[in-house]
Amino acid sequence: xxxxVRDLTLSHPGQPPILRGAALDLRPGxxxxxxxxxxxxxxxxxxxxxxxxxPMQGQILWNDRAxxxxxxxERAGMVQFVGQQPWLQLSGRAFTVREEIAFGPENLCLPRxxxxxxxxxxxxxxxxxxxxxxxxxxxxxxxTQRLVLAGxxxxxxxxxxxxxxxxxxxxxxxxxxxxxxxxxxWQMAVVFLDVAAQPWMxxxxxxxxxxxxxxxxxxxxxxxxxxxxxxxxxxxxxxxxAIRLNGLSFGYKDAxxxxxDVTLDIPKGSVTAVLGPNGAxxxxxxxxxxxxxxxxxxxxDIAGYDPVRANPKALAAHIGVTFQASDRHFVQAxxxxxxxxxxxxxxIAAAKARFRAGQVLAWMGMADLAKAHPLDLHAGARRMxxxxxxxxxxxxVLMLDESQRGLDAAHLARLEALIGFLAARGAAVLIVTHDQxxxxxxxxxxxxxxxxxxxxxxxxxxxxxx
Amino acid sequence: xxxxxxxxxLHRTGPxxxxxxxxxxxxxxxxxxxxxxxxxxxxxxxxxxLCRIGWAMARRLAMLLVPVGLALFVVHGxxxxxxxxxxxxxxxxxxxxxxxxxxxxxxIALLLTVSLLMVMTTRVNDLARALDQKGLPPAAAYLxxxxxxxxxxxxxxxxxIRDSLQVRGLAARSGLRARVRLLGAMLMPLVxxxxxxxxxxxxxxxxxxxxxxxxxxxxxxxxxxxxxVRLRMGLLLASGAQLLVLAL
Lengths: 466, 248
What we know:
The structure holds 2 protein chains of 2 kinds.
Chain A: E1 3-11, E2 17-26, E3 31-35, H1 42-49, E4 57-62, H2 72-76, E5 79-82, H3 97-107, H4 112-125, H5 141-153, E6 159-163, H6 171-182, E7 189-194, E8 207-212, E9 215-217, E10 241-250, E11 259-267, E12 271-275, H7 282-289, E13 297-302, H8 312-316, E14 319-322, H9 335-345, H10 350-363, H11 379-391, E15 397-401, H12 409-424, E16 428-432, H13 436-442, E17 445-450, E18 453-458
Parallel strand pairs in A: 3-7, 3-8, 5-6, 6-7, 12-16, 12-17, 14-15, 15-16
Antiparallel strand pairs in A: 1-2, 1-4, 8-9, 10-11, 10-13, 17-18
Chain B: H1 9-12, H2 15-28, H3 34-50, H4 54-79, E1 86-88, E2 91-93, H5 95-121, H6 124-133, H7 138-167, H8 176-207, H9 226-247
Antiparallel strand pairs in B: 1-2
Membrane topology (chain B): Multi-pass membrane protein
Transmembrane segments (chain B): 20-49, 61-79, 99-119
Keywords (chain B): Membrane, Transmembrane, Transmembrane helix
């Protein structure tokens, strides 16, 4: 296998080039990380390497021939691209994990014995054998990521392009998957795309390049995070809890209870890292506090409202929520309208709401994106838009579900400054995160979930991995 | 999700045989009178009960048939002039219109009941595999099964958008007006989201060689007993006979 990139120019539709005259050589066994901040063009480059988009200018040659010169069946065995949203890469044609992995080899009309061999091999490599008969739709985020990867590996590609492959995984799953990636066939070339060098890349990646100044260059040390100016905060009353749980119990139908008779207070002005293993109920807790689920027993008091009984409009004035898969929650066609939506539902006039949304976007450094469609932005900007929409109305309780995922240093600095600002104003901020470093930097408290209970304690030292 | 897992005889029956059953029901519609069609629908519901999906089927049928039935009987029985009218309290009704409404209702009921029986006992991918196995081009099988696959995708998307609107102050639990407002707010993002995701899904399919060749091979081909093949042939012959009766 050889992949030669010469004089490559790439751009997003209607925008200036993100890469100009880039060159790259890939040979069997290469393990290359291509790094770059949010919007640098990593995904676009990865898609071009995988033949999913055509370059504006220049050449990408697979085995000395252009992409379109290869037959379609041949292409599928040359390059596989695994993107950031694994659930969108499932075929929709398979019920079980085994069937999903077999889908690609079946398309190539391979003999049954070969399909079975490749499927079993990919399941083994990614630790999915015990899930072979599981319904694809009933997998966790990490399992889905591994399934998509297994589906790509079953094609026996000569080049594998992985776009932020660990973005949806917790620490333990990252380490497990990194171990599995270490066992890939040696002759397969692998390109990892990410915002920065990650701990799991150690021992896995041999070379690194960075997208900088329109080219592919050797990486430089990360610059210090930018200073984010924060408006002065007037004195606020920090007495009393922002959230009060009284005898809270909750569980999903046909599943063991997640919470049993939990009573605790979360103080105003606190930043609480919600921690616990997968399935402990972290996201479910945020859904309960947002009024999207009903407790089976007990009562929640959030800024003086019971989320179950409160008028959603009244409750929404006091809470801000970002969801883990924020892309699925955009409802407006322009960024400024998306950010202004909660204000509009509070009855604020459109012009005034847009003005306020514009101010928030300006503070976040995204004023020029106000008229764009949220789904047309890069992943980092989409997360920041979701965040702006959650804070524009000045909530008393802000709930963030993995909002830091996939953000580069500049965006992360803004997120942390915003959390600090809201907490100083007296808001309680709850963050569900698997990022230990992020939680350690921002959290004043930790809320450990597990075994049906919750334990709130001041955060001291390094927080344990989620 | 429409499919309900189970181990009943109908669950084990091949998708193409169940498809032939739907075809038989469809060819019955223009030929048989309403009581026969309703009896056949009742039989299908009873078969669903034997497969332990009776309640789920009945709930879905009620959701679909009650509004349709009401609309049919009101429009044909009271609003459209159809033969001589008879008084009913302060209103006039048309017996012929009611009979026509009953016929339409019975046709819709039978087709829905048999179709539900099929989709609730058949995994969509098994249907696609069965079509692949018969040599249908992969794209054609995909096209035929895509609407069933879409149901789950749309439900997930809609739930996410509803959550997003609710936490920002728009809720569905305060009456009809709010629900209508919510539906209006959900429509565009739902369509846009589905279109946006469709592009990514299409790329993913192409990358894995979908439609690269005119046919697919299968890891686990579906197997059929000779009795099932004979049953399917019988169903197809009966459908053909009904079409012949209709043509004559």
